[in-house]
Amino acid sequence: MFESLTSWLFYLLQNFGLLGLFVATCISSSLIPIPVEVFLATMISLGFSPFLVALTAAIGSTLGGATTYYLGRGASKIAKLDIERARNFIEKYGSIAVFIFAFTPLPYDAVALASGVAKLSREKFLFATFTGRLARFLMISEAIQISVLLLGQAWQLCMPDKHPK
Q1: 8 Å CB contact between 155 and 55
Q2: How far apart (Å, rounded) are the C-alpha atoms in residues 84 and 105?
């Protein structure tokens, strides 16, 4: 199932461009652990602007994270101890924790769920998620773009001239 989902998401990227990226990042940020970085690399290799790729991915990821957040808000049947731990963590660190988890490779889905369980303000959650994801995806997109350019130049330097003189 995971393989067919991944294939379908790459089909979306290749055939629907930024709209496909939006859908793919929304899905990958809602409790289905697919690294967004592979989507960013695919889109940039297809020639899309790193800024538009990062912005689209941040919006999709924020919406996917919001889904997880609302699951947490309605998670009254989770073990009471787990709810208390999540609530304590978010009450202690709040939207700063959301931003850090959104910006770094830490498990963002877990903090999105915990934010919902702890009933962190929706506005704070969405703002921290969007700014953290946008900053992360901008950095990654630019790094991918630079890598593609450098690898392309290196490849051209390594390839012998194919045309005889």
Answers
A1: no
A2: 24
Rounded to an integer, what distance in angstroms lies between the CA atom of residue 152 and that of residue 21? Answer: 24
Q: Is 19 within the bounds of a domain? A: yes
Separation of alpha carbons 23 and 140, rounded Å: 19
In this prediction, residue 2 carries a pLDDT of 57
Instruction: Tell me the pLDDT tens digit for each residue of 49-89.
Output: 999 999 999 999 999 999 989 888 877 566 566 677 777 88
State pTM to two decimals.
0.80
Buried b (16+ CB within 10 A) or exposed e, 39-72: bbbbbbeeebebeebbbbbbbbbbbbbbbbbbbb
**Structural domain span for residue 62:** 2-142
Q: Residue 41: inside a domain, yes or no?
A: yes
CA dist 55 to 49, 124, 134, Å? Answer: 10, 19, 6
Q: Are 46 and 64 in contact (CB under 8 A)?
A: no
> What is d(CA 59, CA 5) in angstroms, rounded to the nearest whole number?
21
Q: Which two tokens stand for residue 82?
A: 């787990």
Please state the rounded mean pLDDT for residues 4-33.
Answer: 89
161 domain residue, yes or no = no
- The residue assigned the tokens 């946008």 is 134
Q: What is the residue type of 11?
A: Y
> Does residue 159 belong to any structural domain of this protein?
no
